[in-house]
Amino acid sequence: MATTVNSVLGPVSTADLGFTLMHEHVVTGSAGIWETYPEILGGVEDLPALAVAALEEARRGGVRTIVDLTTMDLGRNIRFLAQVARESGVTIIAATGAWRDIPRAFWERTPDEVAALFIREIEVGIENTGIKAGIIKVANDAEGVTPAGEIVLRAAARAAKATGTRIATHSYAPGRVGEQQVAIFEDEGLDLSHVIIGHSNDTTDLDYLVGLARRGCYLGMDRFPGRIGPGWEERTETVRRLIEAGWADRIILAHDWQVVGGHASPDRQITRRRNPDGYLFITRRVLPRLREAGIPEEVLTRIMVDNPRRFFEG
Questions:
Q1: What is the pLDDT of residues 268-312, one digit of tens each?
Q2: Coil, strand, or helix at residue 260?
Q3: CA 308 to CA 222: how far, in whole Å?
Q4: Residues 107 and 121: beta-carbon distance below 8 Å
Q5: Rounded to 10 degrees, what is the CA torsion of 185, 190, 196, 202?
């Protein structure tokens, strides 16, 4: 079923997405950081060139699309994303929604009021640019679903149902927080095949992961090489086990990477040393390891190309 999804340069056919990384960032920080405290990012003048170079490298390595899940509270700069997409040739899909720093202004709002804000960014555009969000991001961490977090989850579900837009979550897999997210989405009557439960590879608990997949969700195995918990080899082994268990159609791979992160040191070399392969870590390390384990090329293509396309198409 041919369809389109909003990118930062306009609608793009899902048939043209190609090799897609479904949970990435270009630059992260906090709301207002770009304008108010640019030194937190190590300065912003050279960020376009730095980001374009990183994405050009990714494109040479076969990456065609990234989904940038940087929301307003995480320092989203929509004009910057459009510039980087235009100059790098990589399709970028931007997000509405909210990350963990839920704006205080949302705390006393109803889910319908917050949903209306998300819908506007999907249907009208972000910050009067006309650039439309193509996905909704929500986040709940080790604290689970807080009262403010529940407002955002319900708002996201209602915006998704109203517009047909998909949802990607940040979750805390060691605490099985994805189950809390799913319970609210189910209560809202949302089709769970429209949801990726993110950071699912922060655990190796196959019972938890298969339980989410059985309910219809996509599993965001989207932290490579990883920050907490398992190393990248163990994360890759978990992916292999899920494939062997028959869940290849419900797996999404990505890095949760950024060229520059405002939550880390402004010394960009530290970030690069943590992952010298950047957006190509999966291509250079994870996929070869899965091939060595006997996973057929057709299955890898299904995960990296077909699953993102099917996720957006429904």
A1: 666 677 788 999 999 999 999 999 999 999 999 999 999 999 999
A2: strand
A3: 13
A4: no
A5: 20
